[in-house]
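Example record

One chain of 262 residues, shown exactly as stored in the release files.
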Amino acid sequence: MRILLTNDDGIDAEGLACLERIARRFSDDVWTVAPLAEQSGKGRGITLTEPLRVHGFGERRFAVTGTPTDCVVLAVNELMDAPPDLVLSGVNRGHNVGEDCSYSGTVAGALQGMAFGIRSIALSQSLERFHDEVTAHWETTEAYAPGIISRLLESKWAPGVVMNLNFPARAPEQVTEVEVTTQGFRVAGEMAAVKRTDLRGRDYWWMSFRGTKQDHAPGTDLRAMDDGRISVTPLHIDLTHHASVHDLKGMLGGAPPKRIEG
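Predicted structure tokens for this chain:
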């Protein structure tokens, strides 16, 4: 099996080294194409206004001056001599659950693999709190990801689906359960811009999360992280709200409404 690895934390990230060890338990044919610098929060962004440059970091290991989506596109179309059988994206430092999925570069790397018709899995390791001094439990992902990936590869996936794996911020011996979950949502207003002033007296803003303690719905990826369970969520890219399509057809179907004068 040929495996392509990418991430959004960059080529030097600890999580990528963890993912490389996991991938080599399945195959010797492992390719890594990851961003040269951290691309967290870039979602499915692609680089259109400047050139992309590729740097070699060893055999079948490359860094790209772009986003995770750029990396997968270049890997499949240019850098690899044949397409991969599996794309693994991560392991992200911090979970990607709830609305995180819509702007996660880790999930985006898997989605681009899916767009090429390749089975793709995103992996993220939750943290007790997001701070440089906090060490992630990489050993938890490394202990349980291979078995979960094996089970997923044995199963049938619907077209257009990626698997989003999140591992709780606990040591391996404290994790006793895997849960197949749905994507949860936090209360509105969790994201905020923090205003600060630089040394020359000019204002700037730093995007942040409030970190409000919330009671998340059972069965969601958010609740699984709260309760210390491994979360497996099948995701797809269809953003259509199908119930609203039915409702709107009765109001807007047919000839366009007349223009309102005035």
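Notes: The mean pLDDT is 94.
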